[in-house]
Amino acid sequence: MADIDIRITGRAGRITFSRPQALNAMSYEMCMAIDAAMRLWRDDDDVALVVIDATGDKAFCAGGDIAELYDTGTKGNYEYGRRFWRDEYRLNAFIAEYPKPVVSFMQGFTMGGGVGIGCHGSHRVVDDSSRIAMPECGIGLVPDVGGSLLLARAPGHLGEYLGLTTGRMAAGDAILAGFADHFVPRGTWADLIEMLEASGDAAHVASHALPAPPSALGEMQGDIDRHFSGGSLAAIRASLAGEDSDFTEKTRAALERNSPLSMACTIEMLRRLRAEDGTIRQALDLEYRFTWRAMEHGDFLEGIRAQIIDKDRNPQWQHAGGTVPDAAVRHMLAPLGADALTFEGEDRQMKIGFIGLGNMGAPMAANLARAGHEVTGFDMAEVSIEGVAMAASAAEAAKGAEVVITMLPNGQILRAVAAEIIPAMDKGAAFVDCSTVDVDSARAVADQAEAAGLLAVDAPVSGGVGGATAGTLTFMAGGSEAAFAKAAPLFDIMGQKAVHCGAAGAGQAAKICNNMILGATMIVTCEAFALADKLGLDRQKMFDVVSTSSGYSWTMNAYCPAPGVGPQSPADNDYKPGFAAELMLKDLRLSQQAAESADADTPMGALAQQLYTQFVEQEDGKGMDFSAMLPRFEKRHRG
């Protein structure tokens, strides 16, 4: 192929981009040629390492060839782009996980798709001319090809800065940010590559490297971390607006050029990847969720039109000049079900039984079915879920299933259902209970399951109905390593994070402790707003101070109980429940039951239970969100 030269020289597999007139932009055919060659070399004992370089001085690879993506997308053919991104992302993961050294030499521009080829190998070389960037937000995409993982792992908040501003990194910057490893003067590259070909020993790279040049990014790190730590696009903009400096002026201008939807989704992706210590596959899965929807629902086609086709540099972005709704971000990053990105060894279908198809269980089961698993469900109420076959009993749903998942109201019902389904389950199957119940019930059921030769996991969730629908739940899991490993692929479909907390019951213990903190924190957050009102302090001003200082908390920054302040929350919808007050009361009662059993002194937890009991059972809190404590405190007086 004229655009790329693939061969074996000595001990090295050699890949050279050879279309310098197009800045070595990568076509779909070039992507597939690299993939095929590297798969052959993986199992070839004569190939000790892979060397990837490019002809010309201006670019290693300036990105993917997007002309065909625009042409097909504007005609309503979204499948071509989805196939391109799917196969490209699989290649990116393949390079990142390659069992042999991969050495890339990145002169000039390395952007977009070039990052996916050049920045995931084991030895990444830059020189004085190198300029590495993730410019995707400028064309209505998100940093992809695994770039989101590199950004998430960059020191401090360099990732948010580079992703949102699309800034270019010189050699020292790229090494600081984790996009490159070694600075080697361009004049010695030919000799170094010849040594690699002859020896097959990647250690020669380090021996040719010089100390990294100074980094302009490093000098700006203080400003970057201060302004980009807010956790949302609105917070970052507000921070930049609050300071008048050369840095903030240039940064504001950079953000104004880019797609707000893309920037908001980028921030959320980096947050998720940091929170779960993400892998290359998790990063690519998140990226594919966005790019799969980018033409139909995002700003991609408009971005390409403005930047590449018409070149008017005047894109008409969605949400321009306003706040990007949380719902829009959740939609772009929601699981794709049967269309989800898959990798080698991940295509096997599981047979799953799902018992308890209420407000939480139904969307969780639906996400599993959309991901291609065979799901049989049962609920005491008559329900219908697309893709889920309904059984006549819990035992019938459990029979023959590799994994049985339960989502039930309380420990008493869990014990009754377990007594019915455990005898029906095959040995070696996994019983995964996602209910929030008392620790004693969780451990008793786990003991019964293990005695019957089953794997048992207690995995209560956090994230509410919205998280269940969007596939962004957090699972707190207790059980053996083997049991957790069996359930982990399903957690990845239904949620954004799963933490193995320890032995049986540890998941319930983690959930109880977490929600005791949540309940008590929400109360004091509501109290503080009510106090601020009576002191004449503007609520927005209070939020601006507390959300960026020592009063920072999830209940303030992510789920603010004051309408019209902070990110959108149930407070902006008349306190219709995202997490109902009676469910918070249930969890607080479980925490105090556990505290009594463990002889633990929890006075704040006890007081929180007392207040929510009064709110739900004696006032008007039942059926309201747990943050509706704020209007309660607004009406009350001291004493």
UniProtKB/TrEMBL annotation:
Residues 505-630 form the 3-hydroxyisobutyrate dehydrogenase-like NAD-binding domain. GO terms for biological process: L-valine catabolic process. InterPro entries: 3-OH-isobutyrate_DH-rel_CS (IPR002204), 6-PGluconate_DH-like_C_sf (IPR008927), 6PGD_dom2 (IPR013328), 6PGDH_NADP-bd (IPR006115), ClpP/crotonase-like_dom_sf (IPR029045), ECH_dom (IPR045004), HIBADH (IPR011548), HIBADH-like_NADP-bd (IPR029154). Keywords: Branched-chain amino acid catabolism, NAD, Oxidoreductase. It comes from the Bacteria. It catalyses: a (3S)-3-hydroxyacyl-CoA + NAD(+) = a 3-oxoacyl-CoA + NADH + H(+); 3-hydroxy-2-methylpropanoate + NAD(+) = 2-methyl-3-oxopropanoate + NADH + H(+). One of its GO terms (molecular function) is NADP binding. Residues 351-502 form the 6-phosphogluconate dehydrogenase NADP-binding domain. This is 3-hydroxyisobutyrate dehydrogenase. It comes from Antarcticimicrobium luteum. The gene is mmsB.
